[in-house]
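ARCHIVE CARD
CATEGORY: sequence design from structure
SOURCE FIELD: tokenized fold
FIELD CONTENT:
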């Protein structure tokens, strides 16, 4: 699977085994392969035979490496999010025959589900980041309120005046000293 949530963001990959993961990771750097093409064109390509001339010509790095892993064909299905593709689910096969249409439909359903899960994970990450920022702001606010209380008590001032003195630099003018 190739996942690229933003146009210029870092590409993330996952593979069913370490060699496939390494292949898909290298593919991101080469900017070639069925996942890259599917994601960029937003198209649903058909099954491609990897040891044929068209695949070797289109993917000079990817095709030979995939064949060396024992794969003979590949199909890439887009990870669709609304009107755009955020990546591709790459299905490597050791068979030459096309995948049945019901298997492609199942694969696309898995790709669509994966896209939803990835979107929800991004939303959760964003929510955690906002919560962290709000926590730091609250901690800062508590310190400000404590400082304001100390100044208000020490100089017998209203809270707003204490705030202006603490953060406006007018302690000398307010106290007459």
């Amino acid at each position: 699977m190739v996942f690229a949530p933003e146009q210029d963001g870092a590409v993330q990959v996952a593979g069913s085994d370490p060699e496939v993961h390494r292949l898909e990771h290298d593919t991101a750097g080469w900017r070639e392969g069925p996942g890259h093409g599917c994601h960029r064109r937003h198209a649903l390509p058909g099954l491609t035979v990897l040891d044929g001339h068209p695949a070797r010509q289109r993917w000079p790095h990817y095709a030979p490496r995939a064949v060396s892993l024992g794969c003979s064909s590949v199909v890439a299905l887009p990870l669709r999010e609304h009107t755009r593709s955020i990546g591709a689910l790459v299905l490597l096969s050791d068979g030459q025959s096309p995948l049945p249409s019901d298997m492609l439909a199942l694969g696309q359903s898995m790709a669509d589900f994966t896209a939803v899960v990835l979107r929800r994970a991004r939303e959760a990450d964003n929510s955690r980041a906002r919560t962290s920022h709000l926590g730091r702001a609250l901690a800062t606010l508590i310190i400000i309120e404590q400082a304001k209380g100390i100044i208000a008590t020490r100089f017998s001032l209203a809270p707003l005046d204490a705030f202006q003195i603490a953060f406006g630099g007018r302690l000398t003018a307010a106290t007459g000293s």
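CARD ANNOTATION: The helical segments are 18-30, 34-41, 53-58, 62-68, 101-155, 159-168, 171-175. Confidence is low (pLDDT under 50) at residues 173-177.
SHELF: design records, drawer C
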